[in-house]
Design a protein that fits this description.
Layout: E1 16-21, E2 28-33, E3 36-41, E4 47-52, E5 72-78, E6 82-87, E7 92-97, E8 102-107, E9 118-119, E10 128-133, E11 138-143, E12 148-153, E13 158-164, E14 169-174, E15 180-185, E16 188-193, E17 199-201, E18 216-217, E19 229-232, E20 237-242, E21 247-252, E22 257-262, E23 275-276, E24 287-291, E25 296-300, E26 305-309, E27 328-340, E28 345-356
Parallel strand pairs: 26-28
Antiparallel strand pairs: 1-2, 2-3, 3-4, 5-6, 6-7, 7-8, 9-13, 10-11, 11-12, 12-13, 14-15, 15-16, 16-17, 18-22, 19-20, 20-21, 21-22, 23-27, 24-25, 25-26, 27-28
Length: about 375
């Protein structure tokens, strides 16, 4: 792959919080930058403001830059012309009409948080963050303040609660071709069935900020910070981004194994380095987007966007019936190049995996807001 820079010159407080392929402008990436929604042309590297102002939070309905958001956290495109936004710190759900870029509140009372279900004009929402599609008219989202996963029905125009938990829910995604939502709670991973509401905890349910990430069997894996971004690229493979500890890893739910791709073991050093995972250092990975046609996964960081090639992704993980069966994968992140601006660096990464002859590890049988 040829080096291909995205010189966005970002200087953000929260980073690139969310990315999705733009359905209104084919070939573009729709993304959230602080308090605004923008679209990026991957070929020309040009960005276009859709709504809001990245440096000025607030609440105001309007057209384009006249609108104000307060930490929009994720989006869902309903067809090509309507965008649903979780306006997190305003505690409401809003839409943008792409043909006019005009915003409108559809649920929750902006700047009046609460925990009430019912019709859109009576429902109250606390702090919604991650939204995922369950089916054509039903979306699920996590409400951090009420420690719950809630359901938004666009056909009946109501909001209900799927499940309440004892801990904050930070990451949320849906496993393809299943009725299961996967979530992160206090550093651990779990899943909840959208039909029954049954919750199953998959890891130890804790993390240790003073210890390095512990790869290995899923039930025994330890995260060094809460895994805030979860992203399935197929039915069995989920990328996990840990914002605070600058780590990317992969969970495979067929082999039930977690492997680091990039581990910042030297805290406080935020430059990109070539080499094995011990020296590969990321600056707060924040959002993920796979583009299968290009064989890449795009990673949104605190102040930049980069690429990682995902050819042969399954060879990253211990296989049950392949030539790597008795070997543990070792990763190498190779930096193709860096473009340095006054405040940021832009990187293009190529991930190369090599199977080395090592013994397979033997399986063993309330957070403050950022």
């Amino acid at each position: 792959m040829e080096p291909n820079w995205i010189n966005l010159n970002l200087s953000t407080q929260y980073g690139v919080l969310y990315m999705e392929q733009d359905k209104f402008i084919s070939g573009n990436i729709l993304y959230i930058e602080d308090h605004s929604i923008k679209t990026l042309n991957l070929e020309t590297k040009e960005t276009l403001l859709i709504s809001g102002n990245s440096t000025t939070p607030g609440y105001r309905e309007g057209v384009g830059e006249d609108a104000r958001f307060n930490l929009p956290y994720s989006i869902h495109q309903r067809g090509a012309t309507d965008v649903i936004i979780l306006d997190s710190k305003n505690g409401c759900i809003r839409t943008i009409a792409r043909e006019t870029n005009e915003t409108k509140r559809i649920a929750g009372f902006c700047r009046i948080p609460g925990d009430v279900h019912g019709n859109f004009n009576v429902a109250e929402i606390g702090r919604p963050e991650k939204i995922v599609k369950v089916d054509a008219d039903v979306l699920a989202f996590n409400d951090v303040t009420s420690k719950s996963i809630r359901m938004l029905n666009l056909r009946t125009e109501d909001i209900s609660t799927l499940v309440k938990l004892q801990e904050f829910v930070y990451g949320l995604t849906k496993k393809p071709n299943s009725d299961n939502l996967f979530l992160s709670i206090s550093g651990g991973l779990g899943r909840v069935n959208v039909c029954s509401g049954e919750v199953v905890y998959l890891t130890q349910g804790t993390y240790n900020e003073y210890a390095p990430l512990k790869d290995g069997q899923l039930s025994r894996a330890i995260f060094s910070s809460r895994p805030e971004t979860l992203y399935f690229i197929d039915e069995y493979t989920m990328f996990i981004a840990q914002f605070e500890s600058h780590i990317l890893c992969v969970a495979n739910f067929e082999s039930e194994y977690v492997s680091s791709i990039c581990d910042d073991s030297a805290r406080g050093h935020f430059t990109m380095s070539s080499g094995d995972i011990e020296t590969c250092q990321l600056r707060h990975p924040n959002s993920l987007l796979a583009i299968p046609s290009l064989n890449i996964i795009i990673i949104g960081f605190l102040d930049t966007i980069g690429y990682m090639e995902i050819l042969g992704l399954h060879s990253y993980l211990p296989a049950t019936s392949s030539r790597c069966k008795s070997k543990t994968p070792s990763y190498q992140i190779i930096m193709i190049g860096v473009a340095v601006g006054s405040t940021i660096f832009i990187v293009l990464l190529l991930a190369v995996v090599r199977c080395r002859n090592r013994r397979q590890p033997q399986p063993a049988s309330e957070q403050t807001e950022r």
